[in-house]
Write a structure and sequence with these properties.
Number of domains: 2
Low-confidence stretches: 220-234
Radius of gyration: 18 Å
Shape: globular
Number of strands: 11
CATH topology of the largest domain: Nucleotidyltransferase, domain 5
CATH superfamily of the largest domain: ATPase, nucleotide binding domain
CATH architecture of the largest domain: 2-Layer Sandwich
Number of helices: 6
Strand content: 25-35%
Helix content: 25-40%
Largest sheet: 6 strands, mixed
Length: 234
Amino acid sequence: MKLLAFETATEACSVALYLDGEVRERFGVVPRRHAELALPWAQELLAEAGIARAQLDAIAVGRGPGAFTGVRLAIALAQGIALALERPLVPVSTLQVLAAGAAADGPDRILAAIDARMGEVYVGAYEREGGRLRALDREQVLAPEAVRLPVASGAWQGVGTGFAAADGLLAQRLAGEMVAVDPAALPRAAVLARLAASACEAGEAVPAERVEPAYLRDNVALTLAEQQALRASR
């Protein structure tokens, strides 16, 4: 299977090429440069591998949640290429991608959290089972103090920038349940590509026009009143 993957939902921009089990990736923490770099990186990966776009079997995309602009960019790029090539699209949760990249020697229960700004975090809880990730709860956007683990017993590991948000409030609140926390972890297209390849082989790819971004919330900025209320609560 040959698959091209885009993940641009956070400050990290990454593109990966999956070639029958081998993965090649371009990755960088490049805020505000995603639109400039994503497509050229994809073209570089294809050229280096000697693969034409027409040889791709599918396109994969991190569907969010994350930064609105980044999520929209990844969806637009992936849909555009998939539609042009008449190939299926494999959407994967960015939180799932983040969780799948967690330390293999850590606990099998993983809380992935991305800084959502405006005093909130995007969170998703997962458990590793037989080499696959199972979602333990729905994805949510919440204030750090409102986050609850869906399974209270047992050890967990936490990954993602949500653990550094609000002066590390989420990490502090869940310190008793977390064996390890990596607040610098970011989702990577290489991980996305492997997840998408498995999903594609399981028949989970969909027509490109059916894929929609996962924003989890509609408002992109606080009103002045909301900003004042948030500052007053701190």
